[in-house]
């Protein structure tokens, strides 16, 4: 399809790039559902999904997808309609995804942790027609959330609920008789993924069938997957890492089995690994650490594990070193982003590369530039800002023209916001980050988003959110606030944020009132100085004391 036909609000690849990616076979012209249908034809009897007591063969999985797609069509959901998908790790997640892919409607991947403010924004920004949710999970009632969102968003017509639907559509009631229909063109946008972001509102990432399927196929190949693979999905299934690096979609690509873990706790997951003979799983560093520290390891037979992938946040070298011995399997580091570029360490890499680098890109056509603050290339081996473009890295966020002008270079390179250095072998080492974000155990928090919620409080005059080191999560968030009288307590401010309906992981772990925020010479808040407070030798493990902060900042 030509760029001009693309979904409104999306930036196409320039035609000469698109032609090249097709000619090289990266973009195979096959849709995500179409590809699954090919696998079903070959592996129909094999188990595709294990979810609690339920086990679906590929043929059963496909039947559910085709029937659910028919039900969606009955509700009037058609090509290019947007549907917000907010489900915990349940088999229905993949049924809904592939059914939407089949009819050419676009899932918008929300996380179970999102609350009113985020979901209402996704619905409004994408003009979503429908949402798919679970009834309750972890003590939270998503139907209540939907009632609130629906009250403010007229575009949202249908709510589909896994479990007790109350006044909404029950997921199971949409299993209609399948109807044959042409699938979308593979050049179409398949879904909208969430960006970790660094701006006031979350950005959405439009990925096409062609580009995503290429990254999935190539990832499955790099990771050596075949139909014997049993993958444990312990991270939230909507995240790009467990979805496509190679994740569930990579496993479906080869006819393997996806085992969904409803919780990520070591004891629970170890039980599943033993029972299902899991061969592969992917973890963020904080979860890897929790699994390493757990005594439950000795109670379960984990001998089926071949590879543990770790990515999403900085992996400390000491932790990396413990993984192979503790689990009797390979470690693979993964450095990726929902915008595209994914790097893997490879099976045949020397041990030191696996332990101390974040891998090298999937594709020979992933272009990597490492530049200084003026966009000039740094000397080979030096640290700089990572820019990238390639066959599966987006050229622009969805409906974000002004932001795109900053987030991409004029020649289409994505500014990742990561600071990296490259070894002669092509392996990248992530040295830090320039973007204004907190990476809380792999969950990304855009500082500006939280700051603007804080500033909505009448007593908050100024606010700055920064990362503070944390032994378990890698980073936690600390908000420095300048308050007016009567000054609310940190606890009151946290409650205020919760009431504004934001995901719990975005609520600052610590709130420090200060008299004023330090500024740089050009008048910007000096976050480096704020962060440095936590690195000072006098700061104890729980962070600086109030007086220490007040002393240096006032
Ligand atoms: C993955 O995707 P996102 O979109 O949630 O976050 C991307 C950002 C990167 O730009 C980088 O800042 C950070 O997360 N990151 C890492 C890392 N992997 C991701 N930082 C240090 N070391 C790593 N290994 O997080 C994601 C997507 C696909 C595969 C894996 C991770």
Automatic annotation (TrEMBL):
Residues 38-398 form the AMP-dependent synthetase/ligase domain. Pathway: Siderophore biosynthesis. GO terms for biological process: siderophore biosynthetic process. It is an enzyme of class 2 (transferase). Its EC number is 2.7.7.58. Residues 449-524 form the AMP-binding enzyme C-terminal domain. It comes from the Bacteria. Keywords: Ligase, Nucleotidyltransferase, Transferase. Transmembrane segments: none annotated. SUPFAM superfamilies: Acetyl-CoA synthetase-like. Belongs to the ATP-dependent AMP-binding enzyme family. This is (2,3-dihydroxybenzoyl)adenylate synthase. The lineage of its organism: Bacteria, Pseudomonadati, Pseudomonadota, Gammaproteobacteria, Lysobacterales.
């Amino acid at each position: 399809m030509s760029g001009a036909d693309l979904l409104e609000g999306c930036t196409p690849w320039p035609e000469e790039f698109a032609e090249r990616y097709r000619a090289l076979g990266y973009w195979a012209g096959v849709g995500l559902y179409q590809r699954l249908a090919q696998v079903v034809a070959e592996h129909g009897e094999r188990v595709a999904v294990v979810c609690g007591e339920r086990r679906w063969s590929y043929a059963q999985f496909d039947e559910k997808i085709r029937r659910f797609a028919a039900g969606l069509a009955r509700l009037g959901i058609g090509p290019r309609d947007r549907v917000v998908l907010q489900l915990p790790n349940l088999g229905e997640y993949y049924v809904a995804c592939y059914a939407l892919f089949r009819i050419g409607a676009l899932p918008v991947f929300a996380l179970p942790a999102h609350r009113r403010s985020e979901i209402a924004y996704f619905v409004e920004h994408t003009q979503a027609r429908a949402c798919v949710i679970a009834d309750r999970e972890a003590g939270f009632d998503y139907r209540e959330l939907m009632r609130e969102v629906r009250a403010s968003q007229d575009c949202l017509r249908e709510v589909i609920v896994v479990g007790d639907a109350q006044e909404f559509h029950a997921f199971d009631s949409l299993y209609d008789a399948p109807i044959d229909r042409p699938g979308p063109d593979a050049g179409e946008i398949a879904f909208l993924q969430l960006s970790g972001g660094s701006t006031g509102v979350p950005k959405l990432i439009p990925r096409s069938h062609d580009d995503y399927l290429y990254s999935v196929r190539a990832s499955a190949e790099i990771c050596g997957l075949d139909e014997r693979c049993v993958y444990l999905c312990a991270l939230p299934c909507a995240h790009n890492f467990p979805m496509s690096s190679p994740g569930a979609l990579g496993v479906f690509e080869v006819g393997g089995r996806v085992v969904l873990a409803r919780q990520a706790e070591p004891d629970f997951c170890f039980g599943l690994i033993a029972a299902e003979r899991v061969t592969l799983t992917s973890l963020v560093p904080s979860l890897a650490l929790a699994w390493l520290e757990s005594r439950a390891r000795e109670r379960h037979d984990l001998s089926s594990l071949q590879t543990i992938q770790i990515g999403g946040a900085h992996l400390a070298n000491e932790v990396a070193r413990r993984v192979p011995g503790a689990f009797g399997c390979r470690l693979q580091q993964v450095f990726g982003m929902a915008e595209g570029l994914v790097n893997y360490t490879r099976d045949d890499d020397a041990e030191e590369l696996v332990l101390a680098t974040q891998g090298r890109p999937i594709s020979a056509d992933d272009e990597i530039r490492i530049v200084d603050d003026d966009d000039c290339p740094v000397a080979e081996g030096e640290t700089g800002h990572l820019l990238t473009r390639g066959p599966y890295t987006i050229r622009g966020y969805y409906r974000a023209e002004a932001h795109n002008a900053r987030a991409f270079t004029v020649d289409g390179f994505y500014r990742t916001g990561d600071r990296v250095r490259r070894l002669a072998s092509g392996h990248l080492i992530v040295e830090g980050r320039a973007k204004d974000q907190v990476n809380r155990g792999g969950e990304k928090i855009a500082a500006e988003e939280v700051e603007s919620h804080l500033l909505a409080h009448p007593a908050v005059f100024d606010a700055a959110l920064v990362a503070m080191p944390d032994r378990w999560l890698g980073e936690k968030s600390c908000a420095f606030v300048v308050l007016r009288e009567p000054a609310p307590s940190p606890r009151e401010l946290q409650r205020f944020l919760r009431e504004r309906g934001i995901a719990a992981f975005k609520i600052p772990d610590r709130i420090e009132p200060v008299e004023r925020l330090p500024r740089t010479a050009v008048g910007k808040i000096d976050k480096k100085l704020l962060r440095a407070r936590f690195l000072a030798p006098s700061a104890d493990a729980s962070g600086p004391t109030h007086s220490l902060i007040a002393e240096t900042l006032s």
